[in-house]
Amino acid sequence: MPGALPRRPSPAYRTAGRRALRxxxxxxxxxxxxxxxxxxxxxxxxxxxGAIAMAGLxxxxxxxxxxxxxxxxxxxxxxVLITLGTYLSVRTWSAxxxxxxxxxxxxxxxxGGPRFAGAATGLHLMYILPSFPPYAPGSLGERLAGATFGIxxxxxxxxxxxxxxxxxxxxxxxxxxxxxxxxxxxRLRSAPYTLPEDLRDxxxxxxxxxxxxxxxxxxxPAGAGVRPRALAHAxxxxxxxxxxxxxxxxxxxxxxxxGVAGAGxxxxxxxxxxxxxxxxxxxxxxxxxxxxxxxxxxxxxxxVRRALTTAEDVRPxxxxxxxxxxxxxxxxxxxxxxxxLAVRGRAAAAPAPGRFWYxxxxxxxxxxxxxxxxxxxxxxxxQNAVRISLALAAAxxxxxxxxxxxxxxxxxxxxxxxxxxVRxxxxxVRRALTGTLVGALVAAGLLALVGTDIEVYAVALPPLMxxxxxxxxxxxxxxxxxxxxVVVALVFAQLAPATWQxxxxxxxxVVTGSAIGxxxxxxxxxxxxxDELRRSVAVLLxxxxxxxxxxxxxxxxxxxxxxxPSAPGSRSLQHALVMAESAYAQYQSEPAGPARPPGGQDWxxxxxxxxxxxxxxxxxxxxxxxxxxxxxxxxxxxxxxRAGDRVAxxxxxxxxxxxxxxxxxxxxxxxxxxxxxxxxxxxxxxxxHAYYATMAWLASLTTDLERLAGGAGPPPRPRPDDxxxxxxxCGAGTMERGDLxxxxxx
Length: 746
Prior knowledge:
A two-stranded antiparallel sheet has the order 1-2. α2 packs across α6 and α12 crosses α25. The N terminus and C terminus are likely disordered. The chain contains 25 helices and 2 strands. The radius of gyration is 29 Å and the shape is elongated. The protein is mostly helical.
């Protein structure tokens, strides 16, 4: 009969079931071996909760092998945390102070990327568990041995039990995109000088796959070291190259074919830039896949770029074509250099300063740069770390002063139920309390019915754990709390004689912990990333406007350009992008509130505008090698300055409408700008390339601003499940002052 057979479980259940099986086997095996085999009740507790903390209550990204490597690196950290918690538990005040410091440090780890953020909850629990009485330094060895045994079993389970295949590495994604760029460049060398639709669609797809939102968390190059920074930079440059190739204008009529002498009056020899770009893109793909190509293609492209800067064709169409080719060659050179750094690290050839400021820095310097960039109330990472550390310290203080039984559960509830907005925390707490009440009733009935028959608890624990960690992540926090309440009842009933009052203590502790989390959710940045996103985007647009005005003025004045670490003012824009991107990442993880953003704001368009501003400033003012830029004549100079002022004014108007401080004007936006040819007219013959390069940049910013102010609204945000972590996801990766990694459209 149709429909009689059960449906195949959904992918969410299959994923949760595989993880639940690994957690259950590791936790129950460690618990039973140490408790019933060696008689170590303390070690058994740490083995069980060590496995549950690092896999059941944490979200470690990646394949089984990647998670195993992360767990192996976390073992020494767990030793330190257990030792600190053991010795600081001697007094309530010392335990609370330690909770404040350790809680902030572990939560702030989210700036290091998804792996650090995913392990934070589990590491919190490894400190919370020993920070309660009894004060027993003599049991430290058993605690460390138990936790190590539990995590070791979990590592083995991750490697052997239903291992998940690894996702496509980011280097391979970048290599495929580079190959596509090579095909596009080769195709554009011949008539009709446009990309066919199939090649354009392929390039667009491969470019989209490099966006951090499309990359699995474990594969995102979000670290602070040279290699991950360079790999992210290579992906950004490759996406930019694909975008520039797709928008490349055809050569003017009468121009010579590539590599052929002039074919008409006024025509000049084309240095065959597209052939050099194709060779560099192919070389980059080989390098990213582990090959060792020579650098002749890169050196040739540098010579081609120099030839383009000295091209003598003065026709406006030729000038526009040359400006576009310079953008293409710059993106290709950046892609090649970044790929070399991503593969060889500090052993790569020393690049010119500027875009690759990080190439010769050591890891401690780079980490300090990242951490210091997020220290301050405007960083959502800092806000989340302050919120959760204060809540945990208060929970530890209250649990110690009131001598709540099983105070560990108070902090566990505070840690897992506190959210980034008071609205979300309220919803989560309501569901959690309902689930805990149901679980407490079931646990109380079970304890009263079974009594001290430990064999029943021992047999029932593994299947119940399997159900808990399968249904909980899919069904939500209510189911998780209900099932986990019964699980802990079965665990503690095996450690010591227990009555139905154990369920009562569990309910009391969860109520206390959730109340503390709700209070600090209300007091510390209760609106989450909503206001911070509006504020950071407003700052981003204001800084961008300043740079647009300064850049157009310098273009008009001309002068000598030399490679420098960064253009004046660009570091402020880079830092503004850091704050806006991290706020946007958290905003996407929060449930949609009842209030619409102002004017249907497209937040991602704002980030794209900031990236395009930064890229243009860097390309116009920080060349890869010294060059003298001639000043513009009066007419072209006035046109450049007026166009820059118009773009900057529109940025400032949008910024004023976005700023949430309440003391800024909200003027109506002007009507859309006229088409780019009318707004950015051709200059007289002989006008330097800088004019056309600047006008092309301003035209792209105008397009960005039209989308930003068009009221299309942000893309739909999927509602996160009830396991949304306290720290925002780092997927677009994390940037800070001087970083050039971003998730932008080209």
